[in-house]
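**Paired protein data**
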Amino acid sequence: MDAVNALTARWAASVQGGTVFSAAGVWPLLALLADGATGAAREELAEAVGVPAEQAAATARELLATLAAVDGLDSALGLWTKRHVELRKEWVAGLPTGTHGVLTGDLDADHAALDAWAAERTSGAITRMPVALRPDSSLVSASALTVRTEWEVSFKGDLMPWRDQDRAGLTRTTPDLDAVAVARTPAGALTQARVRGTNGIDVHLLLGEAESTPGEVLGAGVDLLTDALTAVPGSRLPYGEAGPGLRVASIRTERPEPPSLTLNTPEFTVAADHDLPAAPEVFGLTTAGDGSPGHFPGISPAPLALAAGRQSVTAAFGGEGFRAAAVTALDMVWLGWEPEPDHESKRAWATFDRPFGFLAVHRASRLALAAGWITDPTPFREDTA
């Protein structure tokens, strides 16, 4: 899990503006690429996934098994190849059962099949495979991930000011003061609010200093997960402005009341598409994504080259719970002629699709027994088809 978190932090450092992404959706695909890669591509991919290349496939299987066991999380892996692409048995053995499908070469049909897979695996949240197939697309690998949880304590709708505009806000008050914490990071203070889900999936809301970048805030959030940073829980915070957007105070009440935390946040829905090779240093694709063949002999002896890698992802945070879905796909093309067959055979095709003549000939005497010219062949009847 630490390797996936590390990819999350590295990816966060490269994003700008409102977005959403899933490193857990990308990581298994990169790990399987690393397992089948060679040379510099293998080294870069191994560095990106954070484990030695020879351990990458096994670690990917472990991650997929872990994801499958999480309540409220569904994941799937898919692989489609054209029939002429021979895959290494050792590489295929590392894939989940039922993963491998076929690309027919009919772009419309293949697109429809892959789109249907994405929609089915995300319960309709994402209806299209992120990569666009091309005539030479020969191998497509994809992952799908969906996350869902209901809050242990729901929110109430409220009006919320947001940069001089009114937005749909959410508010709730709970007695768990330690559901909020403040950390000191290299980029300044960070406030972390944890919203617990009923199935063991939580959402951490992170607020940094006004000048902090997305990478700094999200990276610090990852560091809190890995204990690279520590945070002071709400019950131990001093009175006053304890952190970004966080105030702690003592109030008078008519009767004894336990400490409480009021959380105000906007309701949100966000969607994004990511071009993975556009950030090659993040995903270890500098060499693997250079468009040349020969980087993946462990996947297939075919001259495959990575042509595209994309992720489509969406997330929604509401009063009752949280939903997210991501589909990631890698498209590999065949950079060469299809394998030559072992034997040669001469073939010809003749088509009689306009008026034609005929002769009936006696073979021994070469005598023409009948002759004719055909302009109106027998009509087609369904009962003779």
